[in-house]
Specification:
The chain is an alpha/beta fold. It has three domains: about 140 residues, C2 domain (Immunoglobulin-like), CATH 2.60.40.150; about 140 residues; about 210 residues, 3-Layer(aba) Sandwich (Rossmann fold), CATH 3.40.50.300. The N and C termini lie far apart (about 55 Å).
């Protein structure tokens, strides 16, 4: 079709080739493509997971004009990280007119365009494959019908974009308040992850739009001139707003993914409806508190909806325990970023071939405990992650044995999910003296079997064990762990921290060459 007779253009992002593995963890990419006309975002493809050769076949419809034909166009491939903000893999820069000319030169074949980053070709000869087809007025009208189906998704994406922009403003206003700035950075990460994964959903729901609007109203108020001045005076309510934003960001991220909807919708339709309403009411209450400059203890809403379990009974038998991170120091936001990101990426990679234990080793006072505290805070911040954390340091108990782990972990797990709780409760009733049973029997009946019997549809179950080297009677714990790792489900992730001196040769011998243990030695530099 002659370009002079076309009123619109269909830019089809077909696929990418040879995308490089991620630099830090050497994993396959989770990637999507963003189209910009000038400086204006015009849409995104869906996110394709775990491949360096993603196929999108996504259509962008662009109405033509003299101005649009000569306007710069960019197609940018983004990598979606689990915890960190998305990163640019590479871009193609051109104009609509040049793309049409290039397409005529190659005929009906796809154009293979070199991806560039900072002006240089992306390593590994990465390409973006696209097609550009001119459309008549009638063809454009037909295509518009399909475009309408994506409108609600685009609206949500636009509103989330505005919300992220507002949060950046709020974060800037709190640079001098360390505690709030840290919360703001985490909230921004969770919202950014939600925004980049919106395009993966196949069907959008009006209720999510209402939730985003409720959050946006709060940040609209906070980013007014008067609102920004008020932030230091009402730190408590701002902290509550940021924490609730993190929870909602993670909720939206999971809700908009089709795989999550497919698994959970059948069981939790009414729960999700009530949860969204609870989120909305919570933000309205926080908005009112911020507006009036007063702080009321608002019960923040979590996402995971658990039924009650006979927790008191099991508490008496198993004595569950949590790591109290409020009394423990986390890493400064600008330190230990590499190892924290490495552990976080490893936690989320729950493929069956992945290793079950991440062993963080290092010398005394190298910061192992602060790293684990930071990981606990990151995992808990979304509320959807099941985190069991225990410290075995001398600052907590006078004497520590493997019994600390064998009796306390199952009771703590029982409180996170009713199905796990039911399985553990069954074991405690079938084996009346389970708390005094050999460690091997406790591991089998209270950890291995309950976790394998439950079909886990959510994010990983994370167990953090700090200062294993200070557990005096650890021989049997090490033996059972090493022998039982292959039996544990892939969604269980165990992070263990210990020293690596000669005194801990038994730990080194157990973990160093184990095929299911990922080992990382922490150096004395904060930039590890």
């Amino acid at each position: 079709m002659d370009s002079s007779t076309t009123t619109a253009v269909d830019i089809t992002v077909v696929s990418a080739e040879n995308l490089p593995l991620t630099k830090q963890s050497h994993r396959l990419r989770d990637s999507y493509v963003e189209l910009k006309i000038g400086a204006t975002p015009s849409g995104c493809t869906k996110t394709i997971l775990n491949t360096c050769s993603p196929v999108w076949n996504h259509h962008f419809l662009v109405d033509r004009s003299n101005e649009i034909d000569e306007c710069p166009i960019s197609l940018t491939v983004w990598h979606v990280a689990r915890i960190r903000p998305p990163r640019v893999v590479g871009s193609v820069h051109s104009s609509l007119q040049d793309l049409l000319q290039h397409q005529r030169a190659v005929g009906n074949a796809d154009m293979r365009l070199t991806l560039r980053l900072n002006g240089k070709p992306v390593r590994g000869n990465a390409y973006l494959c696209i097609r550009v087809v001119g459309m008549s007025l009638a063809e454009r009208a037909e295509a518009a019908r399909g475009e309408m189906l994506r409108n609600r998704q685009d609206i949500l994406q636009f509103r989330l974009s505005k919300l992220v922009e507002k949060l950046v403003i709020v974060k800037g206003a709190m640079d001098h308040v360390f505690e709030l700035n840290s919360h703001a950075k985490d909230a921004w990460k969770f919202l950014s992850a939600s925004l980049t994964l919106i395009s993966a959903q196949r069907e959008q729901d009006e209720r999510v739009l209402l939730l985003v609007d409720a959050i946006l109203e709060v940040y609209d108020l906070m980013t007014t001139v008067e609102g920004l001045k008020k932030i230091p005076a009402v730190q408590k309510v701002v902290e509550q707003i940021l924490k609730q934003t993190m929870v909602c960001g993670e909720f939206i991220r999971q809700y908009v993914q089709y795989e999550f909807l497919e698994r959970v919708w059948r069981r939790m339709t009414s729960d999700i409806e009530e949860k969204i309403q609870s989120f909305i009411q919570c933000f309205r209450s926080l908005k009112e508190q911020f507006s009036q400059g007063v702080t009321v203890e608002t019960l923040l809403v979590s996402f995971q909806a658990n039924d009650s379990v006979q927790y008191l009974y099991m508490k008496g038998v198993l004595n569950p325990v949590f790591m109290d991170t409020s009394s423990r120091t986390a890493c400064h936001p600008e330190s230990r970023r590499l190892v924290i990101h490495k552990i976080a990426d490893w936690i989320f990679d729950t493929s069956s071939a992945n290793k079950r234990v991440f062993w963080l080793q290092g010398g005394a006072r190298y910061g192992k405990s602060t790293v684990l505290t930071s990981i606990a805070n990151i995992m808990r911040v979304g509320i959807t992650y099941t985190v069991v954390a225990i410290g075995l340091t001398s600052h907590t108990w006078a004497k520590h044995t493997h019994a600390t782990v064998e009796q306390k972990y199952p009771g703590t797990l029982a409180g996170f999910d009713p199905r796990i709780g039911d399985e553990i409760e069954r074991a405690t009733k079938e084996h009346k003296n389970i708390a005094e049973a050999p460690f091997e029997m406790q591991f089998s009946n209270l950890i291995d079997k309950p976790l394998n019997r439950v079909a886990w549809d959510f994010e990983p179950i994370v167990i953090l064990i700090d200062a294993l080297d200070e557990c005096e009677d650890r021989a049997r714990l090490l033996q059972v762990l090493c022998e039982g790792l292959a039996l544990l489900p892939s969604h269980l992730r165990i992070v263990i921290a210990s020293r690596n001196s000669e005194k801990e040769s038994d730990i080194f011998g157990a973990f160093d060459k184990h095929t299911l243990v990922e080992s990382y030695e922490l150096s004395c530099t904060q930039y590890d």
